[in-house]
Amino acid sequence: MELTVSYILKSAIVILALYLFYYGLLRNQNSFTFNRLYLLLTPLVALVLPLLKWPIALAPENVVGEALQAIQLSEITVTGYATAKKPATEANNISLSVVASLVYGSGIVLLLFKLAKQLWHISTIKAVELPAETQEEGVKVYQLSESLSTFAFGNSIFLSKQAHLSKTDQEQVLAHELAHVKLRHTWDVVYYEILTAILWANPVVWLLKQELRDVHEYQADARVAESYQTQAYSSLLSKEALLNMGLPVGSYFQKPQVLKRLQMLQLRNNKPDWFRQLLVVPFVAGLAIVFSVQQVDAQSSILKGLTQEINTFTGSEASAAADQYLPEIKPEAETPKAETTPQNNKAPEQLREDKAANLRPLSKAAKEPNEETATSKSEAEKPFVYVEQMPRFKGGEAEMLRYLAKNIRYPKESQEAGKAGLVVVSFVVNQDGSLSNYEVLKSLDEATDAEALRVVKSMNGSWEPGQQNGVPVQVRYTMPVRFTLK
Predict the structure, then answer these.
(1) Which of 116, 291, 298, 345 suits 25 as a labelling partner, its CA being 20 to 30 A distant?
(2) Beta bridge partners of residue 157, listed in sequence order
(3) 3-state secondary structure the chain
(4) Which of 75, 60, 64, 65 is nearest to 424 (CA)?
(5) For the TonB C-terminal domain, which residue ranges apply (predicted)?
(6) pLDDT tens digit sequence for 354-411
(7) Which of 336, 471, 469 is nearest to 409 (CA)?
């Protein structure tokens, strides 16, 4: 839920920024084609840009260091069962989210229904109205008997009664609507009608839709002005400054923004300001960087919670890792109905025992021994990261999974408190196979931290040491344990 709200807020900020950029720099320019494209792409950019992530080559995991100081075991998932009684605040949050979803969904349904009704009305008009005397190649022209304004939709033009107009004026009106058809403005209109239905709660989308409608009129006016005198056409616009009659999915000749259209007609021969258009590129790039940096900062804060110093071990030095699997442990002791199965639905016997460890930048080697360490080492000694012969749980990895399934438990108090998440424990396999230097790198709560430490410590004496050049050496491991609730 939090991720959804965060995404919606970021998207709203992006679309507002893009609209303000358009309003301040592009709105009064005569670059109609560019403005049309900008307005069509703005909602898509606003939806996609918050999802962008920092390029892999620049991600924090790849720039923080050069030597990994811990080998990470496969993540273990411990599944518990949430208590039936939920806190009142959580119940309220659920009910509020349901109400908000219903309200928002109702708005979408109503607006889409309105659009469908308008489309049906247009199809009805086409079925009952007679073709006009004047026809254009590839375009169907209908003469309206109803008191509707002239409009174009798809490849059809619907002409209102124009007895008060001269023949030249009628030709200009037809040329205007024909421009809408040739420029395929209908698809822009339907596209934005659907967008405003889906994003109806965002007022900026409605503003963008109106701006696009204005650009459509400017484009059509410019086409007419190429064939007719600007002064005569301006006079026609002034006479036809009437409100439309309620079929907004069409492209109408009579519109209330006549004054703006007259102003843009005077600017149509001006040279476009290319500099303003080029500013779009650095502006959008800047927005992308801002949101990418925010994601990187969020990732960095998580990493800082895990370690104080992170060093990366390159993939080539890590040898060829086998296919990764994710075991899921459902404890038996404090979760009566739980079952013990790997997450990939395979029995432990089916799992390969000698899979290479997945290397990730998770841990810094501890500098001082823990009180419970089985062996002592000097301050100068540091655990190895990668050795010729890696430490091995006696019986193999499948046996380790069976051991964990039998021994790990989801603390009852954590289940009742609704605590779920990741705990990362670090430990060192010493030269004699004993374990030492236990440390919680990422904490969830006191009970789950203690349980993760307990099960790791209980494996002491069950490991065979790693070797380098035939000599037993220390190797540091991390084991992520994910506690999940059903």
Answers:
(1) 291
(2) 141, 152
(3) CHHHHHHHHHHHHHHHHHHHHHHHHHCCCCCHHHHHHHHHHHHHHHHHHHHCCCCHHHCHHHHCCCCCCCEECCCEEEEECCCCCCCHHHHHHHHHHHHHHHHHHHHHHHHHHHHHHHHHHHHHHHHHCEECCCCECCEEEEECCCCCCCEEECCEEEECCCCCCCHHHHHHHHHHHHHHHHCCHHHHHHHHHHHHHHCCCCHHHHHHHHHHHHHHHHHHHHHHHCCCCHHHHHHHHHHCCCCCCCCCCCEECCCCCHHHHHHHHHHCCCCCCHHHHHCHHHHHHHHHHHHHHHHHHHHHHHHHHHCCCCCCCCCHHHCCCCCCCCCEECCCCCCCCCCCCCCCCCCHHHCCCCCCCECCCCCCCCCCCCCCCCCCCCCCCCCECCCCECCEECCCHHHHHHHHHHHCCCCHHHHHCCCCEEEEEEEEECCCCCEEEEEEEECCCHHHHHHHHHHHHCCCCCEECEEECCEEECEEEEEEEEEEEC
(4) 75
(5) 395-486
(6) 333 333 333 333 344 444 443 444 433 677 767 788 888 988 888 888 888 889 999 9
(7) 336
Both tokens assigned to 102: 């219903």
CA angle at residue 117 from 144 to 192, to 5 degrees?
95
pLDDT in tens, 413-446: 988 888 888 999 999 999 999 999 999 988 999 9
Measured between alpha carbons, how far is 366 from 441 in angstroms, rounded to an integer?
11
Residue in 359, 350, 345, 331 with CA at minimum distance from that of residue 398: 350
Instruction: Tell me the C-alpha distance between 392 and 466, whole Å.
Output: 7
| Dihedral sign computed on CA atoms, order 202, 203, 204, 210 | positive
Q: How far apart are CA 451 and CA 430, in angstroms?
A: 22
Token output for 396: 């193999």
Task: Report angle CA 344, 347, 353 to the nearest 5 degrees.
Answer: 90
Q: What is the pTM of this model?
A: 0.58
Largest Cα–Cα separation, the chain: 104
Please work out, in degrees rounded to the nearest 5, the angle formed at the alpha carbon of residue 465 by the alpha carbons of 464 and 471: 135
Which residue in 428, 413, 418 sits closest to 363, CA to CA?
428
Residues in the chain with pLDDT < 50?
A: 56-68, 242-247, 298-380
pLDDT of residue 322: 32
